[in-house]
């Protein structure tokens, strides 16, 4: 788009459909419609939830292990509450840590059973935390946990197709 001098939505909106089609082909119509708020795709109000999580931005940066464990416990409790509310269960746990300098680290582990209770989540959260470095010079600003990879229902095995015959009268 840079060659055309289009750098924002206002400039895109000023382009004619013909010009956009010449420069972009079939996708020109999509650009033309979207910048005008036209989207004829069907709305899918029911979507399958793929994860549930929560995070806590701390009032003060922390680096003392006991403080970090306490905060991790609080986030894990909130996660368990959300999992219960949403009736969600998954097999992967992700720990998200953001430092004072806004650098972010994540660690994930997957287990063969569903995670939805504190006694199942907290030990794994602590295990993931051990993989994260933090110190007084590199303190933690945010802690988050999420559960993902829900158990997927296996589609029912399709019955074997059988060719039917019709009996016609002669």
Characteristics of this structure?
single chain; 32% helix; 26% strand; alpha+beta; 170 residues; 5 helices; four-stranded antiparallel β-sheet
In round numbers, the mean pLDDT is 90
User: Which shape, going by the Cα principal axes?
Assistant: flat
The class by helix and strand makeup works out as alpha+beta
Order of helices and strands: HHHEHEEHE
Biggest sheet architecture: 4 strands, antiparallel
Number of beta strands = 4
- C-alpha-based Rg, rounded: 26 Å
Low-confidence runs = none
Q: How far apart, in Å, are the first and last alpha carbons?
A: 69 Å
Proportion of helical residues: 25-40%
Please list the strands of the largest sheet in the order they lie side by side. 1-4-2-3
Total of helices: 5
Strand content: 25-35%
């Amino acid at each position: 788009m840079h060659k055309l001098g289009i750098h924002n939505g206002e400039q895109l909106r000023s382009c004619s459909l013909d010009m956009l089609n010449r420069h972009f082909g079939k996708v020109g119509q999509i650009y033309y419609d979207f910048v005008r708020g036209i989207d004829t795709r069907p709305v899918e109000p029911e979507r399958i939830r793929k994860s549930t999580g929560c995070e806590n931005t701390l009032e003060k940066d922390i680096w003392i292990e006991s403080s970090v464990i306490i905060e991790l416990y609080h986030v894990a409790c909130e996660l368990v509450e959300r999992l219960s509310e949403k009736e969600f269960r998954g097999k992967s746990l992700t720990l998200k840590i953001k430092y004072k300098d806004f650098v972010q680290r994540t660690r994930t582990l997957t287990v063969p059973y569903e995670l939805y209770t504190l006694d199942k989540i907290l030990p794994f959260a602590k295990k993931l935390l051990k993989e994260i470095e933090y110190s007084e010079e590199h303190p933690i600003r945010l802690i988050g946990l999420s559960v993902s990879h829900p158990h997927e229902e296996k589609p029912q095995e399709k019955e074997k197709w059988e060719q039917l015959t019709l009996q016609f009268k002669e």
